[in-house]
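INFO  loader      accepted 1 record
INFO  loader      residues=167
INFO  predictor   begin
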Amino acid sequence: LATSYTLSQAISYIKDYDVIICGKQTTDGDTAQVGPEIAEFLHIPHVPYVVEILDIKKKSMVVRSTYDEHDELVEVAFPCLITVEKGQLVPRLPSYRRKIECKDYKIKSITLAQLADENPEHYGLNGSPTQVEEIFPPDKRTDSVRIHGTHKELASHVVNILRDNRF
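INFO  predictor   done
INFO  writer      dumping tokens
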């Protein structure tokens, strides 16, 4: 949340953008929340899991978004944010000539004093509502049980399964 907020504040400072492109998720937190949270803070639409940009129009673009069971074609108005899977929409490497042209380019830094929200308590660990104590991969279980019965029997059986598995 603090990362998303910080990035949204910096993007608000920059102001002039049509599309923000984020990766789907990082390998450390692995939550896939930063991109969508940035869009929420900026009050702009977002499309997750984009694998292809199909068309760019004057005020929108059409993208293909891939989910586990289906794909969606989505037209999204500018300004917007998309998240992309690793390996999708790979940027081109700059040419030698472009590298030479940009060798003295300075990356602009933004300080807290330039942001709309200058309260340091809203950034970094201070601005995070959670603190990570441990990171581990979730168990991926695919076993399943088919149960039959009346609504009451099914409910009772599900409660027993949850209790047995300590949920």
